[in-house]
Amino acid sequence: MAAMSTVPAVSVVVPTYQRRALLGRLVRALEQQEDAPPFEVVIVDDASTDGTIDEVERLRAASTVPVVGIRLDENRGPATARNAGWQRATAPIIAFTDDDCAPQPGWLSALGRALEHADVAQGRTVPDPDQLAHRNVFSHTVLNEEEWGFYETCNIAYRRRVLEELGGFDERFRYPFGEDTDLAWRAKAAGARVSFDKQAVVHHDVHRHSYVEHLLDLRRREGVVRAIKRNPEMRRLCRYGIFWRPSHPSALWAAAGLATVASARRRPMRALAGVVMCAPYLRYRTHTYPTGLARNRPVTVPMLLLSDLAEMAVLAAASARYRTVVL
Q1: pTM, to two decimals
Q2: CATH 3.90.550.10 residue spans of the chain
Q3: Which ranges of the chain have pLDDT less than 70?
């Protein structure tokens, strides 16, 4: 159990929107922190309409750790909410997590130890093991077991002075994606020392999405392009040239191959060439990186191809907007 104190050493900042039902679990997880320094929990309600602020007040009155509630008048996304949270916070260390997460008991103590010799400390995030059995092909979660160039705010801590020097999160990102990685790369460019601690563990919810929900969620990927534009060093994360994901080059070939087959008519060699062009993508989705049950792949592979092409279209539009090429 965390010790109570009027002067917290750490402020845990959590943005939330329309997720009243998740907040109790989050606060219970924070109440169970072991060997943690004195801390407060700052929950920022990003103009929810589901009674979130009432739940925050209930938790403030009932929790064994200090809970501070902030209510924003207009929904402006998690970057704005996080900025409001750390600016209201009182501690010299700001830890971030999300409302769909459950920090494990040693989380805060591990981040605190990591920050003894660093300015930014990231922890290990894994899908909630109790929810994995209910996932589908298009489920969303976070898996991060090492420092790999992305700095998700579901599990990270900053020295407050770093946030002050950089002005916090860039609120101009149009969708909540990439603004957290952008902040960390700007911090590194300014000389911040970054540490990764595998003992700082957070369980992230597994959100079971429908295919339509998955496609609609792809528009957020434009944040990748904006982050790379602002931080050219991030370009090395594109391990496949200008392509963001390993599936994208072969998806582009597959799209061209399908167009070739469709235009072949009575020219069998042209049709055969189109099929050959599709082969690398089929191999990727069935052998290199198989997704879902084998018996479902005749349906899921075409759906994944459409998803990859839709994601590339989002990235292409953002490339034109931000004048840097990412596909």
Answers
A1: 0.93
A2: 10-209
A3: 1-5
